[in-house]
């Protein structure tokens, strides 16, 4: 009720709707659908409503994450089909954009559906700055994500196929390969970054910074000195990790990590065609995904220039147009 009041204070539209459902034969958990009636896509609303009614479980004690899995029917797909927010102002903005909020009792966050891959890369921070700064942050974040995905497999391709390098880039490549094959160094380094991340999460805040510095710098330096790792492997993995941390959505960041490992493996086995094929398969995988019927790569596929421009350019609030009310 408190969360609903916070939202209602920001959305005073008379067409704001709140539908309440009970999920779980034993837990009887309250699930609430939030939307603005004249802005929402009623086909998507009907789909979500029917899926909630069709849920047959005894309990919903894991709240919104458990409900997400039941609604999206995803098993091996690592990419999220909904967005999460703990900010009532962020939810209000998305409601006015015609999206749907899904609130679960006992959860501090709200799901927003449907969503797309590119929408997951936006952050509320961009609207705390001027349009130019906000647009710069979007481009910088997109560049960081592309670096995190493709820098390491591209560098590995040039290590194994130096003939593909133009003369002015011949400096790329390890001077000392090390005692371990490059592919093993890369895979161990990528997994090691995840070890450091998990260790930092489960370490008390006062010690997590020191842990990251000691583990990252000290272990990396020792691995280079004893000849286990090439200095360039450590460099490119570190740059790639920094780019990954620019991803505002935690789940998308982890999913991109899985995609990067897949592209690294295909590049190792098939060289240039492996890199090209891995990227094509990655894009096709995203293209065939949907979020409650909405294409996951929209507005790129299918292409919509106006919406595509809005994804990368933070427009002025005075120029922002809402959907027209339906008759």
Q: Could you characterize what this model shows?
A:
The chain is α+β, with helices and mostly antiparallel strands. The chain folds into two domains: 114 residues, no CATH class; 164 residues, no CATH class. Helices cover 52% and strands 10% of the residues. The chain has ten helices and seven strands. The strands form two sheets. Strands 1-2-4-5-3 form a five-stranded antiparallel beta sheet, with helices on both faces. A two-stranded antiparallel sheet has the order 6-7. Helix 5 crosses helix 9, helix 6 packs antiparallel against helix 7 and helix 6 crosses helix 8. The longest helix is centred in the last third of the chain and has 38 residues. 24% of the residues are buried.
Helix count from the secondary structure assignment = 10
Strand content: 5-15%
- Rg, rounded, reads 23 Å
Order of strands across the biggest sheet?
1-2-4-5-3
Derived structural class: alpha+beta
Largest sheet: 5 strands, antiparallel
Tell me how many strands there are.
Answer: 7
How many separate structural domains? 2
Helix content: 40-55%
How far the N terminus sits from the C terminus, by CA atoms, comes to 31 Å
Shape: elongated
Poorly predicted runs are none
What is the N-to-C order of secondary-structure elements (H for helix, E for strand)? HEEHHEHEEHHHHHEEH
Average pLDDT: 85
């Amino acid at each position: 009720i408190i969360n609903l009041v916070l939202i209602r204070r920001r959305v005073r539209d008379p067409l704001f709707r709140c539908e309440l459902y009970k999920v779980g034969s034993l837990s009887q958990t309250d699930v609430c659908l939030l939307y603005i009636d004249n802005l929402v896509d009623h086909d998507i609303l009907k789909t979500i409503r029917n899926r909630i009614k069709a849920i047959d479980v005894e309990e919903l004690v894991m709240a919104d994450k458990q409900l997400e899995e039941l609604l999206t029917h995803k098993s091996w797909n690592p990419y999220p089909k909904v967005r999460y927010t703990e900010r009532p102002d962020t939810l209000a903005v998305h409601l006015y954009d015609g999206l749907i909020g899904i609130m679960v009792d006992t959860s501090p966050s709200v799901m927003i559906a449907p969503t797309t891959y590119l929408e997951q890369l936006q952050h509320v921070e961009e609207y705390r700055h001027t349009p130019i700064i906000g647009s710069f942050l979007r481009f910088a974040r997109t560049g960081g994500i592309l670096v995190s995905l493709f820098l390491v497999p591209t560098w590995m391709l040039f290590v194994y196929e130096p003939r593909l390098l133009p003369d002015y880039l011949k400096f790329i490549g390890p001077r000392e390969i090390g005692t371990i094959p490059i592919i093993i160094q890369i895979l161990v380094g990528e997994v090691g970054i995840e070890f450091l991340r998990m260790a930092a999460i489960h370490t008390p805040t006062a010690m997590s910074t020191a842990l990251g510095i000691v583990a990252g710098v000290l272990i990396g330096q020792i691995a280079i000195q004893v000849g286990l790792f090439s200095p360039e492997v450590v460099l490119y993995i570190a740059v790639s990790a920094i780019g990954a941390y620019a991803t505002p959505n935690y789940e998308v960041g982890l999913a991109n990590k899985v995609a990067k490992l897949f592209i690294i493996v295909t590049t190792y086995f098939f060289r240039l065609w492996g890199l090209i094929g891995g990227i094509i398969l990655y894009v096709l995988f995203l293209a065939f995904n949907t979020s409650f019927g909405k294409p996951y790569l929209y507005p790129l596929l299918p292409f919509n220039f106006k919406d595509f421009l809005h994804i990368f350019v933070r427009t002025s609030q005075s120029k922002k147009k809402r959907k027209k009310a339906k008759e």
